[in-house]
Amino acid sequence: MRKERQAVINEQNGIFPAVCPLDCPDTCGLLLHKKEGKIVKVTGNPDHPITKGAICNKVRNMTERIYDEKRLKYPLRRTGLKGEGEFERITWGEAISEITGRFKAISQEYGAEAILPYSFYGNMGILGVDGMDRRFFNALGASQLEQTICNAAGTTGWKYTMGANRGTVPEETEHADVIIVWGGNIISTNMHQVVLAEKARKAGAKVIVIDVHRNRTAQWADWFVPLYPGTDAALALGMMNVLFEKSLVDEAFLQQYTVGHEELREHVKDYTPERVSLITGVSVEDIVKLAETYGQAKAGYIHIGNGLQHHDNGGMNVRAVACLPALTGAWAKLGGGASRSNGGYASLNSDALERPDLRENPDARSINMNQIGAALHDEEQPIKGMFVYCSNPLVVAPDAKRVEQGFAREDLFTVVHDLFMTDTAKYADIVLPATSNFENTDLYSSPWHQYVHIQEPVIAPLGEAKSNVELFSLLGQAMGFDEAAFRETELSMIEGALDYPDNPYLNGVTLNKLKEQRFVKLDMSDYEQLLDHLPTPSGKIELYSKVMLEAGLSPLPVYAPLHEGYDGEHPAGREDKYPLMFLSPPNHNFLNSTFANVEKHQKMEKQPMLHIHLRDAEQRGIEEGDQVVVYNDRGTYQLTAKVGEAMLPGTVISQGLWWEGAGGRQRANMLTPDRLSDMGRGATFFSTTVQVIKQEV
Ligand SMILES: Nc1nc2c(c(=O)[nH]1)N[C@H]1C(S)=C(S)[C@@H](COP(=O)(O)OP(=O)(O)OC[C@H]3O[C@@H](n4cnc5c(=O)[nH]c(N)nc54)[C@H](O)[C@@H]3O)O[C@H]1N2
Ligand SMILES: Nc1nc2c(c(=O)[nH]1)N[C@H]1C(S)=C(S)[C@@H](COP(=O)(O)OP(=O)(O)OC[C@H]3O[C@@H](n4cnc5c(=O)[nH]c(N)nc54)[C@H](O)[C@@H]3O)O[C@H]1N2
Ligand code: SF4
Ligand SMILES: [Mo]
């Protein structure tokens, strides 16, 4: 491993192929331009069949982050109070021995389940986040983390219907003639889907955006349909009502490929356009027009975003939308169908990667990452040790004040491994410097397209930074775990991950090919028969799901109002002390909390803003540019008002996960609830109500 790494790194100048490591569906092919041992420019790789040389502004400016002077270069030990950010430099040897010493002591006194890893996908490299790290925590016997902060609700709702995370592949979508972008801001979050949709549009397709916010994508679309937050299931059911009423359904398709269409046909009679209009805020005419436009399409494609599923009823929202292409038979048309995540095509050998066999306590307790604040307050089964990597929970997890209070506990031993001194890292006892992805070897697949990538180091680690793989391998050995698994090289781990006969899509994807070509397409020969053997209990699209019934859910899609939030059918709520719904989706120039601390990206994004409707602003004496305070019982968030009509009255929106250490004033998640969604125990960030007042100066 060492030799190969050296060979690449020593090549001082030139252009090196790479892959974008960020938690973004596009997984772009990149080119790194190197001069005198430094990356001086990042461009798109024109040879990449899907991303074709185009990349976003965030990553075009990636060198600003890689070489940011604020990057952590050495291990640190806290000297000040938790949260103060005062640390001293220590050696790796000291860091490792302190961590292993403390973990051993905690295990002895409280059991290893008192230690909790907290990670997400700050770097999508699979070896570092679903590989060596898992081996370490498995062998340690630590508590397990339910990683449900992103799309768990939607995944579950989709899987009840379609069986697996496999939908329409991107290349096909340029053949669609009606494209519905439902709860996704793809201009900012999936830019190459926009390129494909634009191609379709040139050939006559219509693009419709269904969203609570006239975001960048809605501004680009042919038709923007605004609705009240969390009412998507009602809208989808209203469309189904019209599709059945007007005989715009494909009866032959329903017969052959679905179960439960007769039950659904009866059931949606309750969702008349009149009732659905009241719930959603979409006019009766628009509901009918939407259903007709979709029902009459030759090949209707629905892109299901993340927005509609970050709600109390998020699973059902996605479940309901996922039923639509089955009604019209769009699945059978080139370009038609739907996709939410296509990650299921590239599923890897997770047993080989994560080695669950190293765990002696497979029933170890599991903690939901959305409820980390509450878990850190649990006195009966206390968490005594935390290991945070590839995540920034103080900024990204809901109910941030409780999270912060939890991390502030003096009796909690916390390690954070990151590239930067994040708001979370300031609460750590030990902070460890992480390499950027361009400094390591790792394997990347895309949740959207069907190419698998390898990344090998293009520059040497900055300072004393170590990759996740190197770190957890070191820690494992220092703990005395003598299994060979802790000495395996990255390349050997990649071979293990790809050796997975259970997934025929991986046929022919090998380490050798990856090393030669940098990215390799999955074997998609099974794709044509996708609908013939869906991994649902019936093998068909389940419009009625017995499994849901067994899980205590409605077997047919239904609309349920949010716990905290209003729709037209529940107008009394509007008298409440928190009369506005607050949504905090991603912004254009950050990637979750990443880049929020990079000056260049901050400048591109300007400042944290609150979009507020003219009517709601007038009622509060708020004008454009005013400083406002958004608050509820959980916390406060200070923002600058942007007054307009970008959403229905009653909804306010602030994009982007700003953080305090990066110049933000408080954080969006100070306001968000840690309730779990109806399915998949997912996050409910967007099911929040608030009040807004003008800040007196
Ligand atoms: N630039 C950029 N790109 C990113 C990210 C980023 O932070 N910045 N994050 C990445 C990650 S991890 C993810 S998961 C994806 C997420 O990307 P998307 O799938 O685009 O999802 P979101 O941006 O969370 O939300 C999309 C839209 O849903 C809307 N929305 C909120 N509630 C509702 C609702 O109830 N109904 C409907 N119909 N719409 C609603 C929001 O207003 C927003 O416009 O993006 C990835 N790409
Ligand atoms: N209010 C609100 N909250 C949200 C969302 C929202 O829309 N609104 N979106 C949610 C969603 S969809 C998601 S996916 C989560 C994302 O939550 P996270 O995954 O936690 O957020 P990121 O900012 O992507 O990454 C976290 C950290 O990983 C670090 N990192 C990068 N590479 C490496 C590495 O190789 N090793 C180590 N050790 N660290 C590394 C980065 O520097 C960064 O600090 O946030 C969720 N939170
Ligand atoms: S963040 Fe997304 S669009 Fe930007 S380079 Fe990475 S994969 Fe491509
Ligand atoms: Mo996400």
Q: Which ligands are bound?
A: ligand MGD, iron/sulfur cluster, molybdenum atom
Determine the N-to-C terminus distance: 60 Å
Strand order of the largest sheet: 5-4-17-16-15-6
The residue ranges in which pLDDT falls below 50 over 5 or more consecutive positions are 1-7
Radius of gyration: 25 Å
Structural class, from secondary structure content?
A: alpha/beta
For the secondary structure, the number of strands is 27
Percent strand equals 15-25%
On the 0-100 scale, what is the average pLDDT? 96
Helicity, in percent?
25-40%
Largest sheet: 6 strands, mixed
Number of helices: 26
* Shape call: globular
Question: Could you explain how this protein is built, in words?
Answer:
The protein is of the alpha/beta class. The chain is built from 26 helices and 27 strands. Strands 5-4-17-16-15-6 form a 6-stranded mixed β-sheet, covered by helices on one side. A 6-stranded mixed β-sheet has the order 23-25-24-27-22-26. The protein has a 5-stranded parallel β-sheet with strand order 10-9-8-12-13, sandwiched between helices. The model is unreliable at about 1-5 (pLDDT under 50). Bound molecules: ligand MGD (2 copies), iron/sulfur cluster (SF4) and molybdenum atom. It comes from Paenibacillus urinalis. Pfam families: Molybdop_Fe4S4, Molybdopterin, Molydop_binding. Belongs to the prokaryotic molybdopterin-containing oxidoreductase family. Keywords: Iron, Iron-sulfur, Metal-binding, Molybdenum, Oxidoreductase.
